[in-house]
Amino acid sequence: MRLAIIVVGASVVSVLGLLAFRGVVPLDELRLAANGLGNYLQTVGGVYAVLLAFVVYVVWNQFDAARAHVDRESAALVDLHRTASGLPKGTRDPLQAGLRGYVDAVLHREWDAMVRRDEKVIASVGELLDEVWLAIHSCQPANECQVTIYGEVLSRFNDLTDVRTSRLTSSRQRIPIVMKVLLYLGALTVIGSTYMMIFDPWWIHATVVAALSGAVAHILFLIVDLDDPFSDRWAITKSPFERARQAFDRNAHTLDADEPAIAA
């Protein structure tokens, strides 16, 4: 709905601007300069089209990378939780409890904090992983198997912290303000330049201007939306973390690594 309002609004405003322009500018002089104006508009329009294509490509790649970071982090959480099942009970239980608490905090606190850019909340959620690290650091493997598992846990924890950092970095990345100014000024320049290309009858001119304005407004809306990957219409969902939390419950530890295996 908001997209439709913006596109229609931009088209209507541009047509009203065209009517005002045609009412105050001598049209015969513009007709005489039609060839030169056509070359000018072709150059300006081409440059702006390349700029739009470049920015859309960049923000889409950033959006896709942010979505991949979310998927990788949730997968790393499940792997770490599962691998930790092979550690001694004194390490396993607080480690897995810490991972559950971390996922719950991401779902209920940090996700909205990323949208609001609330660094205080984000930092407090990150401290939960510090507690997980302390549980890992206190581990005392009892046999060779647990030593191997402990090494895997360390590796997977490092992977988890790396992808968390990548996710948070993606949530903070934005198009530079100078680029945004260039995008909006370019839109005004290209649309305003079409006013000087005189079409008869006037409704053909109005149709061209409205169509161009609507298309540019649509692309700019897409750029702004994708530039903030964790909010707005096409926001990345937190469903991977919800599935990770469900996986924790399904993969609840049932065997005690401290107990010796029972001979057959």
Structure overview:
This protein has a domain at 67-174 and 227-251. The radius of gyration is 28 Å and the shape is rod-shaped. α1 (2-24) runs antiparallel to α8 (202-226), α3 runs antiparallel to α6 (144-172) and α7 (177-194) runs antiparallel to α8 (202-226). It has helices at 2-24, 27-32, 34-83, 89-116, 119-137, 144-172, 177-194, 202-226, 239-250. It contains nine helices and no strands. Residues 260-264 have low confidence and may be disordered. It has 264 residues and is mainly alpha-helical.
Overall residue-averaged pLDDT value: 89
Annotation field: number of helices? 9
Could you say which structural class the secondary elements and strand pairing correspond to? Answer: mainly alpha
How many β-strand stretches?
0
Q: What's the helical proportion of residues? A: over 70%
Order of helices and strands: HHHHHHHHH
**What is the CA-atom radius of gyration, in angstroms?**
28 Å
Q: End-to-end distance, in Å?
A: 67 Å
Topology:
Elements: H1 2-24, H2 27-32, H3 34-83, H4 89-116, H5 119-137, H6 144-172, H7 177-194, H8 202-226, H9 239-250
Features:
mainly alpha; disordered C terminus; rod-shaped; 264 residues; 9 helices
Write a brief caption for the model.
The protein is mostly helical and 264 residues long.
